[in-house]
Design a protein that fits this description.
The complex is a heterodimer of chains A (368) and B (637). Chain A is mainly alpha-helical and 368 residues long. Helix content of chain A is 77%, strand content 0%. Chain A has one domain (36-358). The longest helix of chain A has 33 residues, at 267-299. Mean pLDDT of chain A is 91; it is low at 364-368. Classes of the chains: A mainly alpha (368), B alpha+beta (637). Bound molecules: protoporphyrin IX containing FE.
């Protein structure tokens, strides 16, 4: 790989070095798929770092913090109670609590900025969001490590239950937002996008404190598959993007009514961002659903069983396919599509959460 | 509008898609493919019949649903057929006929200065930027037409052909063929539970059946050459090209006790060639043989053998032995009544969340078995007994759950374990307390120790103590409470109740002390907290009146026999569904991420002024930036 910028090349070399070291040290514990995923991520992350320059810093911060966490654990789960740094900052539960505190703070700051218009507060809000996303991701990484401390055979990637995917949802939605914040050059939309993230945080906290959902549980047999590792994150990029689209649509609708005209970007920009978010979400959601089908064929003996989760995924997919048809082919824009994308989020939320709450099926995680 | 136009119109397609969506929602809200009885209970006969006609119990296989799918396929095919020529033309075409005025009127157009008449530099720049270029002369003037991103249009073909391929693949794996055969009376669903040899050939599906998803339940050591397809309120038999034998079924556990894997060690034997292969399958690791894939899908007990001790809790008696098996029932005459004991399940591992030090920990609490005791009039109570004692608040108890219907939670009878973690201590205690010889001596000792009542009539006092014990043994603490309510004035009731409880306890305590004097070598009552044990034992004797039956079943030993549930799938459509999915992703990618761009430079004869115009069929905000970018580059040339 050769990039034009020196920092991109350095980043690639860094990833290559770390990846090779990991491969060299741990290859006896890995199967072919895992090696493939490792090598793939070297290139994937290099590309992402080139595509979005800030991502490099983010990656390094999470990488370093996670290493520090792992270092302090010193191979012993008890350290989470005894070590100061772990207990208050880097043990996964603490990091995720920090994340849960920083996202609300970021939301408040974004709204403050919305009204007083001083750029200082905007970038402060943005920094809080970055911080929350960094510490949250570190939490997931450290949790991954913790699961192996519980038992070598228990260790697994933290995308295996509702608690973990809610954290993932917050992180991915925030990252997608931060990308657009930089690209579009407006910090006003944080006030909207962060609402949906904070709703997820509220659920997460309730789920943690009333159900003890933050416990690391071993994987049930159906989840022991490498497909899980790609199916679930792909799905959540989809959900995250759809959620962002809906929040921007709300901003659009408010603007359309003639409110906040000075603080919000133009309708064109909002409309275009909604489209882009849905487009990204759609392609990832399509891939995720297909991966789900391939996985289902292996775990349940059929690529499509009309299980409620599958069926709702199809409904979500059809909904956004219709949205894209109308916009791209009929050239429809504006209020109707904005409303539609808001309703889309309701459908998506039902698929994501409602199915687990109200319907039963084969999907084996996330019962409440 | 002609019929074809209607069929291929977007409105029609979207209506069909909405139908699919709504039908799908119904299918997720109404639980699919349940036993018909449970629907009847839920909806009542009238609505049950109505929903049955609509096919709501299996929406996704209902005729109307399949018809919608076929309409969708047709509609999309016609759509492709009608749009294809136009789209191919557009892909090929350079649009060299465009006039100066229309270029000027375009949203993105600008005047630029160009010196070279040949437009050589511009052509080069455009090619570098991924454009295809064509130069034409319009009279004395020159028109340069360029285009880029033609693959976006291919996206249309990819996505829509993908929809067709996926739907066709899905229909291949549906049960269209069977539906037709059933409709024509060639095949028929079997509704009764019959041995294989009695099942009519009409309910058999041949080996060469095109596609199916069938189930097989195999006990360890058993072999089978057919599988079953549950259908509506019955089933079909699917003949297989091989037989499957289950050598062994294995559940592996994590150190915390939760299941880690379900594995079946199988031997498949080809019916024709006699060739056999042996392979272990597990969840997520199926085996494909002869185009049929075998999945680990389920497990249950395969008729474990149970060696049971029957203990009578209401008199002095020794245990009786009984042998049974899961899914068998034993007839027992007890008292003057006949009971049938129906054994339903045996579980080797039971993972429960146990609270220790305020933290919930998942723990394996050992084997249990489930049975029903049914009396002659057909009423039954369900029980679930654990073989090993379980820790509750730091004490060890043998737990036996009882409920009178499936909807209820089990309520537990707790029998305290003795110092050897055994049932014997309690049973000996029970025999002591039901033996009047022993209780007589114990009561004398109680009177001796406590000196109560000695002042009055000692004989009458002894009688009253005997009476209290008798009431307790005939109805537990609640009977004692009742008798107090009836015989004692209100203001004294609490005091007397406390005294009675204490007396019963002291009798128990003395029984054990006497026993230990008689058998000094027995160590089962060498307890740290004898009081706790005695109280627990008395509680058990009292609670048993809510237990529904006098007999307690102790599981002495067992022979675990398991059965593995397999699913056998033949899905020729799978390949097509995957291929279609690949097309779908490619197509969506083309449509969303490739932008089709057209660009023209119109240069008037002899003038160095030219018009640059650019257009796209999907206008996004970035396009303006792109236009300015290209403008800058081309100006330089
Ligand atoms: C199962 C049914 C269908 C599905 C799932 C489906 C899906 C899609 C998707 C995902 C796109 C891409 C949208 C985008 O650009 O992002 C698309 C585009 C399109 N669809 Fe469909 N479609 C279906 C049926 C139809 C039918 C029946 C028609 C006939 C009118 C149709 C006409 C079109 C057209 C004209 C385009 C745009 C092509 C272009 O100009 O690039 N679709 N469709």
């Amino acid at each position: 790989m050769m990039f034009q910028k020196k920092s991109d090349n350095l980043f690639f070399l860094f990833l290559l070095a770390v990846g090779s070291y990991a491969l060299y040290t741990f290859h006896t514990y890995m199967d072919h798929y895992e090696m493939g995923i490792l090598v793939g991520s070297i290139f994937g992350f290099s590309w992402l770092g080139n595509f979005w320059q800030v991502f490099k810093k983010y990656f390094l911060a999470v990488f370093l913090l996670s290493l520090i966490g792992i270092y302090f654990y010193n191979g012993n789960l008890i350290s989470a109670e005894t070590n100061f740094i772990l207990k208050y900052f880097l043990a996964s539960q603490s990091s995720i609590m920090w994340m849960s505190a920083l996202f609300p703070l970021a939301l408040l700051t974004y709204w403050f900025y919305m009204f007083n218009q001083q750029i200082f507060y905007g970038s402060l809000a943005s920094k809080f969001t970055w911080l929350a996303t960094t510490i949250g991701m570190t939490g997931l990484m450290v949790r991954w490590f913790e699961s192996y401390l519980i038992g070598i055979d228990i260790g697994h990637i933290p995308v295996s239950n509702l608690y973990e995917v809610f954290v993932l949802f917050c992180l991915i939605t925030a990252l997608i937002y931060l990308y657009y914040e930089e690209k579009i050059g407006t910090m006003k939309l944080g006030a909207f996008v962060l609402i949906v993230i904070n709703a997820a945080i509220a659920f997460l906290l309730w789920y943690t404190f009333s159900k003890g959902a933050d416990q690391i549980q071993p994987l049930v047999p159906a989840l022991q598959s490498y497909w899980m590792k790609i199916h679930v994150p792909a799905n959540f990029i989809g959900y995250g993007a759809f959620a962002m689209a809906a929040m921007i649509s709300i901003a659009y609708l408010i603007r359309d009514k003639g409110y906040m005209t000075r603080s919000l970007p133009s309708q064109h920009v909002l409309d275009d961002m909604t489209y882009k978010a849905i487009a990204i979400g759609f392609i990832f959601f399509t891939i995720a659903t297909i991966l789900g089908a391939i996985w289902a064929a292996e775990a349940w003996g059929g690529y499509w069983s009309w299980d409620p989760k599958e069926t709702w995924a199809l409904i979500v997919w059809l909904n956004y396919a219709a949205w894209l048809h109308l916009r791209l082919i009929k050239g429809l824009r504006g209020t109707l599509l904005a409303w539609w994308s808001v309703i889309g989020l309701i459908i998506t939320t039902f698929c994501f959460l409602g199915v687990n709450l109200f319907l039963s099926g084969l999907h084996s995680y996330g019962e409440l | 509008m002609t019929f074809l136009q209607l069929l291929s119109s977007m409105r029609f397609a979207i209506s069909m898609l909405s139908f699919v969506a709504i039908a799908s929602i119904i299918g997720t809200v109404l639980k699919q493919n349940e036993a018909y009885e449970s629907y009847i209970i839920k909806f009542g006969q009238f609505w049950f019949d109505f929903f049955e006609i609509l096919g709501l119990y299996n929406v996704y296989q209902a005729s109307w649903f399949i018809i919608i799918l076929i309409f969708l396929i047709t509609s999309t095919s016609v759509c492709i057929y009608r749009n294809a020529p136009q789209i191919i033309r557009e892909i090929k075409e350079f649009n060299t006929k465009i006039k100066e005025d229309s270029l000027k009127n375009m949203k993105h157009s600008s005047e630029i200065i160009i010196k070279q008449a040949s437009l050589k530099n511009q052509i080069q720049i455009l090619i570098q930027n991924g454009f295809k270029v064509k130069l034409t002369e319009q009279g004395p003037d020159v028109l340069l037409s360029a285009k880029k991103g033609q693959f976006q249009k291919l996206g249309y073909f990819f996505t829509h052909i993908a929809i067709i391929i996926i739907s066709v693949g899905g229909l291949m794996d549906g049960n269209l063929v069977f539906k037709a055969q059933e409709y024509l009376g060639i095949k028929q669903i079997e509704k009764e539970d019959l041995p294989l040899s009695k099942i009519s050939k009409k309910s058999w599906l041949e080996i060469n059946n095109f596609s199916y998803r069938a189930n097989m339940l195999l006990k360890e050591g058993e072999s089978q050459g057919v599988a079953f397809l549950p259908r509506k309120d019955g089933y079909l038999v699917q003949d297989l090209p091989f037989s499957v034998a289950l050598k062994d079924f294995n559940i592996k556990h994590y150190s915390s006790g939760q299941p880690k894997s379900f594995e079946s060690d199988l031997i498949l034997k080809n019916k024709e060639s006699g060739e056999s292969i042996r392979k272990t399958i597990s969840v997520n690791k199926p085996l494909t043989y002869n185009g049929i894939t075998l999945y680990q899908s389920d497990f249950q007990d395969g008729g474990s053998k149970l060696m049971i001790n029957l203990w009578n809790l209401q008199n002095q008696s020794s245990k009786q032995k009984m042998e049974s098996e899961v899914f068998k029932s034993n007839q027992i005459v007890h008292g003057n009544e006949k009971f049938s004991f129906e054994f339903n399940d045996f579980r080797l591992f039971n993972i429960l969340d146990i609270e220790t030090d305020g933290k919930k920990i998942s723990k394996n609490v050992g084997p249990n078995f489930t049975y029903k005791i049914r009396n002659e009039s057909g009423q039954a109570l369900e029980y679930q007994n654990f073989q090993l004692p379980m820790s509750v608040n730091g004490q060890q108890y043998f737990m036996s759950g009882m409920r009178s219907s499936q909807q209820e939670e089990f309520r537990y009878l707790k029998i305290p374990a003795d110092a050897n973690n055994d049932l014997r201590g309690f049973m000996v205690f029970k025999d002591l307390i039901y033996s009047s010889v022993n209780t007589n001596i114990a009561i004398d000792k109680v009177i001796d120790e406590t000196q109560i009542g000695a002042a009055n009539d000692p004989q009458a006092f002894k009688l009253s103590l005997q009476k209290v014990l008798e009431v307790f043994l005939s109805g537990g603490y609640s009977a004692v409470a009742q008798s107090i309510e009836q015989n004692i004035p209100l203001e004294k009731q609490t005091e007397i109740a406390n005294t009675y409880i204490k007396i019963i306890f002291l009798i128990g305590n003395n029984l054990i002390q006497l026993y230990q004097q008689d058998y000094p070598n027995e160590d089962m009552y060498a307890l740290e907290k004898p009081q706790q044990f005695i109280q627990d034992a008395l509680n058990t004797l009292s609670d048993r009146f809510f237990y529904g039956h006098d007999l307690y079943l102790e599981l002495e030993t067992y022979e675990h026999i398991q059965a593995s549930g397999l699913q056998l799938t033949k899905a020729p459509g799978q390949f097509w569904v995957y291929l279609g999915s690949l097309f779908l992703v490619l197509g969506i990618f083309c449509m969303i991420y490739i932008q089709e761009v057209r660009l023209w430079i119109f240069k008037k004869n002899k003038s160095n002024k030219a018009i640059l115009a650019m257009s796209t069929n999907r206008e996004h905000l970035d396009f303006k930036i792109y236009f300015n970018d290209m403008l800058k580059k081309l100006k330089k040339g």
